[in-house]
Specification:
single chain; 6-stranded antiparallel beta sheet
Length: 192
């Protein structure tokens, strides 16, 4: 993301400190966004990533991937899969691959391809800009003021929430749209 893009998304010019530390702050913001979404959105061409299958499922959630060059299941190249973005097979990027057969526990899936986004979606870019703003401001929590009253005017702060948690709460729709953090790990099996 460029300085001009960040300024447009934030609706303000970057400070001289933000300009000087742009790369560092963006790296930290991308790390925090990775923690929030449970995968990296940074473009990585030709990289190999490894995943462990869920027992009894045929879907492996992998994060944002544009193109898939090779898939290995337990070390053997396979073509018995289809890339998906949730329920859609027609997309500019995908977040899962669905095998034709169900997988066993601890099956290892190795995927080589172009990871991340060639052009990050607008709402996700906006979220990254907000995380950048949080990083550059250096705020990890709000003040210790829990209540203040002047005549008939009063203000209270929720001191239990960090600034990062507030950011997550106010952007939950975008996070839910892209996140893989809440993918179920329900195991199939017999009932005794």
């Amino acid at each position: 993301m460029t300085q001009a893009q960040l300024e447009a998304l934030l609706g303000r010019p970057l400070s001289s400190i933000e300009v000087t530390n742009l790369t560092l702050y963006l790296d930290i913001a991308n790390e925090r966004l990775q923690k929030i979404l449970c995968y990296s959105v940074v473009q990585d061409v030709g990289a190999q990533r490894f995943f462990t299958a869920r027992e009894g499922y045929s879907t492996v959630f992998v994060g944002a991937i544009q193109t898939i060059t090779e898939v290995k299941l337990n070390g053997v190249i396979t073509t018995d899969f289809t890339p998906y973005l949730w329920d859609s097979r027609n997309s500019e990027w995908f977040n899962s691959i669905v095998f034709k057969e169900t997988l066993e526990a601890n099956d290892e899936v190795q995927i080589t391809g172009t990871w991340g986004f060639s052009s990050m979606p607008g709402d996700l870019s906006q979220l990254l800009a907000k995380v950048f703003d949080l990083v550059s401001s250096g705020i990890s929590s709000d003040t210790n003021v829990s209540s203040k009253k002047v005549e008939d005017f009063s203000i209270s702060f929720d001191t239990n929430l960090t600034a990062e948690q507030r950011l997550i709460d106010s952007n939950i729709a975008t996070i839910n749209k892209y996140s893989l953090c809440n993918i179920g790990q329900v195991r199939n099996g017999l009932v005794c």
